[in-house]
Amino acid sequence: MTTTSRRVLAMPAIVALAGFVGTGLGAEAPGAHEAPSAGGVHAHPGFRAHDATDGHGGRGAAVVRSSGPLSDLDPTATGPFDGASAAVRISLLPHGGSRTLLLVRGIDGAEGQTFGAHLHAGPCVAGQPAAALGHYNTDVLAGVVPPEISDRTEIWLDFTVDDEGGRATASVPFVPQPGTRSVVIHAAATDHHTGTAGARLACLPVVW
After folding, report:
1. Contact 74/129 with Cβ under 8 angstroms?
2. 82-99 confidence digits (pLDDT tens)
3. Pair 156, 164: CB distance under 8 Å
4. Element housing 34 (H / E)
5. CA 168, CA 196: separation in Å to the nearest integer?
6. Edge-first strand listing for the sheet containing 98-105
7. 203 near 183, Cβ under 8 Å?
8. Which of 45, 131, 193, 205 has the least C-beta neighbours within 10 A?
9. Are 5 and 144 in contact (CB under 8 A)?
10. What is the pLDDT of residues 156-171, one digit of tens each?
11. pTM for this structure?
């Protein structure tokens, strides 16, 4: 599928999210030293344009954010994300596509380790890793066979733990369609050939 086709596929999402932009909630973007709030999922009417940047000097308007404690997907085992919190924000980019920011705080005993994290198509349900379904993939949604598995058709948010926290951003040429989604953190770094990253350890709901 061409880049043009993928952007056409993303248009319904852009239209659906257009109403989220421009009402001026005025919340500051999560920063490197800001702890995620414990308020759960926040699907906001919009943010002022200055609340998000595209990482390349451009401006983007945040359309949805979620923050709170991570849900444990493997409650039978002790893991580094037990008790950790996270924040996610998805922003529209000015020339098409979107940018996702992930912040994780309170990671225990995993300094220097890299973990894979991805936007998944299904919900975040504690103790039920399969509920999150597969990665959110624009080719899969479009019925492309075989689908391309890459950081252009999926949102990959791998991070390396530093000072008990992690941070990742991903810019992609599409806008995720609204739905009951989740960001899932995996046990290993993402394999760029297969998109896999090991067992599912924790998740955060992202709903809009």
Report:
1. yes
2. 999 999 999 999 989 999
3. no
4. none
5. 17
6. 40-42, 61-69, 85-92, 98-105, 165-172
7. yes
8. 193
9. no
10. 999 999 999 999 999 9
11. 0.75
